[in-house]
Amino acid sequence: MLKIHRDHARFRKIVRGSIKKNLRQYITKGEMIGKKGGKFVSIPVPQIEIPRFRFGKNEGGGVGQGDGEEGESVRGEAGDREGTHILEVEVSLDDLAAIMAEELELPRIEPRGRMEIEEHRDRYTSLRRTGPESLRQFKKTYTAALKRQIASGIYDRENPVVVPIREDRRYRSWRTVEQPESSAVIIYMMDVSGSMGDEQKEIVRLESFWIDTWLCSQYKDIETRYIIHDAVAREVDRETFYATRESGGTKISSAYELCADLLDREFPVTEWNIYPFHFSDGDNWGGGDTEIALSILREKLLPVANQFSYGQVKSLYGTGQFIKDLREKAKDEENLVLSEIGSKDEIYESIRDFLKSGR
Fold first, then answer.
1. pLDDT of residue 45
2. Which residues touch 279 (CB under 8 Å, ≥6 apart)?
3. Cα 32 from Cα 30, distance rounded (Å)
4. What is the pLDDT of residues 269-292, one digit of tens each?
5. Is the pLDDT score of 112 beyond 70?
6. What is 183-355's CATH superfamily?
7. Is the pLDDT of residue 73 over 60?
């Protein structure tokens, strides 16, 4: 390995350790999400310097040495030297997901078997006597030549030179196999009624970024859809999802019904791993809508979902009642996961709550 490769590998290891150490801080900050590009994100890390010994006399003096009297103020002057800079390092989303898995102790997801789509792929599994030179198997060719020379009596132990001829050559051969490939759909639903403010939406935005990062590392193909609701639900694009704010009431059943219809139309359970996430402050309309929402959840969503995740974001104006109703009336549902998110500092544990089951 060239020295530059060793240095680069060492640098990446140091960066990885820095990201892992500060992961909780990164999760609560939104700057890096805005710098996402393709399959990479830019992460600000403190300036990294490889420690090394410097030889020579220490002429800088010790701590507290120099001119001046006790109590005298220290005044700084403008200088011409550069200050300490923050280094921005580009990290792949796969690496970020791996760091996240280590730190949060997340198990790999085991896709449900019936959700797998067959993909045709060539695999090299056998040998043949003809083929392009780029596929020649040198070890097998040498072995065939050695066997031929020993069998014909021309192999000389004192001068063990083995020269393959055309009939000794062996080439890798392939066959087309069907390989299972898993696809997944993430459906984000969010209450955008008047009680869900900018702070609550920012929590949802941050949390969904890390959920996306993890699930994208587990599946080859990911589809993401967005539903907003107050008293009425509608499907929107990502930008609208985080920017919309309404002033009406809340009917959670409207979002669950639209989600069920979307899955029925576009994402058959036989072909997709399904992950609905719903975020709300828990304030639902009091006209019996909670019972309707629970009925849709039990009959239409939980039977097809790998996991249904409900995150309740604390709001000054929300009652927070819906998560209490879920805990009381849907506590036996195995693939229903609940999480309360009081502030940005609690996003870290909420992500662990949602992803720790490996469903």
1. 60
2. 188, 189, 190, 191, 200, 204, 207, 310, 311, 312, 313
3. 6
4. 988 999 999 999 998 887 799 999
5. no
6. von Willebrand factor, type A domain (3.40.50.410)
7. no
From the list 306, 315, 104, the residue with the least C-alpha distance to 210 is 104
Instruction: Fill in the amino acid letter for 16.
Output: R
Write phi, then psi, for 40 (nearest 5 degrees): -130, 155
In angstroms, the CA 250 to CA 195 distance is 9
Q: 152 is written with which tokens?
A: 């014909």
Write down the residue that tokens 């072995």 correspond to.
143
Give the whole-angstrom CA distance, residue 251 versus residue 229. Answer: 7
| 92 C-beta neighbours (distance < 10 Å), count | 13
Give the H or E element holding residue 326: helix 321-329
Strand residue runs (E) in 17-78: 40-45
Maximum C-alpha span of the chain? 99
CA–CA separation, 21 and 82 (whole Å) = 27
pLDDT digits (tens, 9 = 90+) for 290-337: 999 999 999 999 999 999 999 999 988 777 899 999 999 998 899 999
Counted residue by residue, the chain has a size of 359
What would the DSSP string read from start to end of 126-176?
EEES---GGGB-HHHHHHHHHHHHHHHT---SSS------GGG--EEEEEE
Please give the span between the terminal C-alpha atoms of the chain, in angstroms, as a whole number. 40
- Taking alpha carbons only, the member of 224, 225, 240 closest to residue 192 is 240
- Whether the CB-CB separation of 164 and 141 falls below 8 Å is answered with yes
- Which of 317, 311, 309 shows the shortest CA–CA distance to 346? 311
Q: What is the pLDDT of residue 116?
A: 47
DSSP state of 111: -
Place of tokens 């702070």: 199
> Tokens for 184?
């997944």
State how far the Cα of 157 lies from the Cα of 161, in Å rounded to an integer: 9
- Of 258, 208, 266, 250, nearest to 234 by C-alpha is 258
Q: Which pLDDT does position 60 carry in this prediction?
A: 55
The counts of H helices and E strands in the chain are 10, 9
Mean pLDDT of 54-59: 60
Contact present, 46 and 18 (Cβ < 8 Å): yes
Amino acid at 215: L
